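Folded chain entry —
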Amino acid sequence: MAARIVPLIIRMLLSQEEHNCWNRESSMKLVKTISFIMSSSQPKQYTFFADVYDVVRQIPKGRATSYGAIAKYLGSGLSARMVGWAMNGAINIKPKVPAHRVVNRNGMLTGKVHFGTPTKMQELLEKEGMKVEKETIMNFDKIFWDPAKELAI
């Protein structure tokens, strides 16, 4: 959000001559400052992505789940695509998110394009003991991890 606001602030605060001298490094410093101010002055808000990451971190090695199962568990059954977007952005999240354990409802590795190489997702799953053929987890129904059952209170 701050990245979109900064150009407007710069235009409002600087004359045309000063604006022409403004460089990318200065802009990035201002973005960081505004982001820090916004994050420290506002209370922490609920984020769907953070909840998705919390669920995915609980999937045991050797098991996999689907985007839809996570969305349904979080009370947003029609948001499977949002879970996919969260997995796409999980690469730099700390603590680590095992995004390779989340596949489509048929066990297909639909998110494989978001890993470092075209075969990385499959390699990670096979390293955990899952068998993958034709970009689909074999016996997916047997290794399927349902958060609604596994995380039930």
Q: What stands out?
A: The chain has a mean pLDDT of 81.
